[in-house]
Amino acid sequence: MAEEIRAAIIGYGGAFNMGRHHGEAINREPGMRTVAICDLDPKRQEAAKGDFPGVDVYGDYHEMLKRQDIDLCVVVLPHNLHAAVAIDCSTAGKHVITEKPMCITVAEATAMIQAARASGRMLTTFHNRRHDGDYQTLRRIVRQGLLGDVFRVEMFGGGYGHPGTWWRSDKKVSGGHFYDWGAHYLDWLLGIVPSRVVEVRGFFRKLRWMDVTNEDDVHALLVFANGVTADVHMSSIARLGKPRWRVLGTLGAAEDTQGAFRVETELDGLAASATIKFAESGWANYYHQLADHLLRGGPLDVKPEQARRVIAIMETAERSSQSGRAEPVPYEDEIDPADRMN
User: For residue range 204-263, what is the model confidence (pLDDT) as tens digits?
Assistant: First the structure.
């Protein structure tokens, strides 16, 4: 195992300051250090120098990849650039983290996985939201059997409002409306339901915001091999929303209520109600676990095949919307059962 992991950030855009977030998170981990940052924009290069004094700053990531002392590259770029840059990093012998979503297409995800395998280096995606308090709490509720056998999951995200005119609302760059929060929602869902996805039915609508190219409303219905059905709805034209989570099981149900889950269940044959507060989110755990993997050989938290499942479902949902019928999800039969749990 390496004694130190020296990291480079590729992309230092101002939106959400995610480049700075990654750099700071890396520097907080013993045995990890940010040593280089790359961005095309001279203004963002100057911002990087101010945020991380002494770190080398580049305008061309190809030049940066020539450095032998860089072990890890974190790709913090628009979604349509993830695949090509990640493959270049893997080919250069670097470990790679991509911001979520992993990429836009299953073909891209597969090429990324193949490049990482060929180089013998790690590939993962920043699904840090696995450490959100609501998801962690719901997973414990399900695993402790309070709901019995889950048979239905409903998820909603969004509201009513213009999505903005930046790259995240440009379908060619972002991948579409599903590829933002939808990537987190699907990753959560796949951690709640440990089963193969049999088919997906998708409904993609463009009805209101015609000056941007992302969809206004995306709706996916998933059928799992164990009989569970899931309904995932993301919208920018929903004036009335719904809870993020509603889960039905053979013994009970859970619904989020702003900071807690309302749980209706059965204990020893008696109906019971409970309010279970969300656990505290532990976002720092993503890099804790990554450091453990790279420095001490611990398990990889977000495997690339898991991240590819998310991409495959989103891509399949859109294909279904175009075909007007349910469609199968690529690679589901090749996923190790252990990788169906996150």
Answer: 999 999 999 999 999 999 999 999 999 999 999 999 999 999 999 999 999 999 899 999
DSSP 8-state class, residue 310? H
219 and 203 Cβ atoms separated by less than 8 Å:
yes
169-196 per-position pLDDT tens digit = 999 999 999 999 999 999 999 999 999 9
- Nearest to 209, CA basis, from 168, 260, 263, 156: 168
Alpha-carbon span 209 to 215, nearest angstrom: 8
CATH tag for 5-129+288-296 (out of 3.40.50.720, 3.40.640.10, 3.30.450.20, 3.40.50.300): 3.40.50.720
CATH 3.30.360.10 domain range(s) in the chain? 133-280+302-340
**Cα–Cα distance for residue pair 237/241, rounded to 1 Å:** 10
The region, left, alpha or beta by phi > 0 then psi within -120 to 50, assigned to residue 70 is: beta
